[in-house]
TrEMBL record:
InterPro entries (UniProt xref): Fungal_Metabolite_Diox, Phytyl_CoA_dOase-like
Record SUPFAM superfamilies: Clavaminate synthase-like
Organism superkingdom: Eukaryota
Gene3D superfamilies the record matches: q2cbj1_9rhob like domain
Protein's UniProt name: Phytanoyl-CoA dioxygenase
Pfam families per the UniProt record, alphabetical: PhyH
Amino acid sequence: MLAVRFRAPRLLSRGMATVAKPASSPSLHWPAVVRPSVGEIKNARLDERNLEKAVRHMHQDGLVVIEDVVPHEDIDQLNTKMVQDARVLQNMGDKGPFNYNQGNLQQDAPPVAEFFYPSIFTNPIATQITSAVLGPRPKWTFCSANAAMPPLPGAPPQRQPVHSDADFAHPAHPFALVVNVPLVTMTPENGSTELWLGTHKTDISFQEGAHGERASGRIMENHLRDREVVRPPIQPIVKKGSIVLRDLRLWHAGMPNPSDQIRIMLAMIHFAPWYRNTMRLEFGDNLKPVLEELDQQGQLGLDIPVDWVSREKALKGYLNRGFGNSYDFNQTP
């Protein structure tokens, strides 16, 4: 029996509300799931076969799910804090850092040592895969989260348009992978992200909307209609404790969360070591020895450009960030 199930709802409409009916060959449409053995989890490293499977599906589908690699106690502690923060951001209304609509918030985790869990933010199995795809010591320069918010009283459900986060001219081969860590089990009932597998091989000619706009990177309607015939979108059910690796170029859309539970999914972006992106993380300085120790122990495997600030400054400013499309994931010429 599959421990992770995937639903493809009936076709409702295209574009802003595109969801698709089940396909005749479900295996073609479900994301691949890697289930590490007890030994692999203990050693925090996939064996050759599971690593090959993860890499193969990153190239083929633009996405792979790795199950049961993040301890639930770490997730629960971080989720408690971030749910509190999500309510603060929601109360900001249209002045808050939302992505396309106010039901989908851009939210950073507290960038200080007391809320930093290596099992979540620098998971060695995730880094093993991104290093295999992108090259050794990828650059970690983005750390945030997406919060799918329950609707406010009287508010209609809202979804994002189908879009790509690579809303600029970009390489035709992998250059950036998003490491998503859901803090609860994700389902269609709490706003699991809609995924269009295999679309990471497209370019900006499929998109509309200029970079920097809240609605940039939108996929044109004719391309959505063409693609849903070939490989329709799905909303996966992903177990708590999993990691989802996604090619930055993949088409996707945040979906409504009709439940009463805030659904938070962390997003760390690993860029290829050769990719000339100038973004830097901002962390509290009490996190510096934590990262240094991980590196000394050979448990980091990342290049992390950081602007260090005092713990007090980090806590004061981490909720005052931009929305997703205001970040520049492009590289310098």
